[in-house]
Amino acid sequence: MLRAFKYYTINADDEFFEGETNAYVMDLHNGDILEIHFASVIGRLWHADGSSEYVYIQGMEEYLDSVFAE
Prior knowledge:
By secondary structure, the chain is mainly β. The chain has one helix and five strands; from the N terminus they run E-E-E-E-E-H. It starts with 7 loop residues before the first strand and ends with a helix.
């Protein structure tokens, strides 16, 4: 299911997302890390080389909530 999620890079800077908290942090096991912001459709994709980009990931937080629900 996770591989079915599409993401789109968005143009944004760090100041726009200052104060965001992460709902989930996913190790993608290829050197990349995906931070999923709480109550948002936005995340930050960190690449193995230290660069990052903001990404639109609608539905990812809700899906993970359902997987990890008590």
